[in-house]
């Protein structure tokens, strides 16, 4: 990787190559020791590309209250439900496609959906049966290829 002694000399090139390498401006750090960037008030916890209607629908369906009143963990659960729907929809469209690698892609998506569902079931089982949840997680760790995410 190219290193530059002066950001002024190669700043624009560095910005184009890898913006994450640029230092955080001191004004963006917190007042308490300069540990990290300060989040503005009212900022959304995580970026969501889902429509407001979709988030509200799942929040009412799962928790019986509006999305804006949910806490962080509940909002993550809503996003997970929507993400699962998106994976199933992707599998549906891949199954319809006539691409040469369609069957392999469909198998990969289906396997990923099954793995995700097993992990969600294990997380739900933690409170009631922790030993079984641990066993399921260990099986998942053995079956997931090491080069995957």
UniProtKB/TrEMBL annotation:
InterPro entries in UniProt: TPR_IF140_C
IF140 C-terminal TPR domain ranges (all copies): 85-143
Pfam families linked to this entry: TPR_IF140_C
UniProt name for this protein: IF140 C-terminal TPR domain-containing protein
Annotated source species: Tetrabaena socialis
């Amino acid at each position: 990787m190219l290193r530059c002694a002066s950001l002024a000399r190669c700043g624009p090139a560095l910005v184009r190559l890898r913006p994450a390498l640029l230092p955080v401006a001191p004004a963006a750090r917190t007042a308490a020791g300069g540990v990290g960037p300060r989040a503005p008030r009212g900022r959304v916890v995580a970026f969501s590309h889902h429509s407001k209607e979709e988030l509200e629908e799942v929040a009412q369906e799962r928790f019986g209250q509006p999305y804006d009143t949910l806490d962080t963990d509940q909002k993550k659960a809503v996003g997970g439900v929507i993400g699962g729907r998106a994976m199933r929809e992707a599998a549906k469209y891949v199954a319809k496609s006539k691409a040469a690698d369609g069957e392999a892609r469909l198998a990969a998506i289906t396997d990923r959906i099954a793995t995700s569902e097993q992990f969600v079931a294990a997380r739900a089982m933690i409170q009631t049966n922790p030993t079984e949840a641990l066993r399921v997680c260990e099986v998942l760790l053995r079956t997931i290829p090491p080069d995957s995410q």
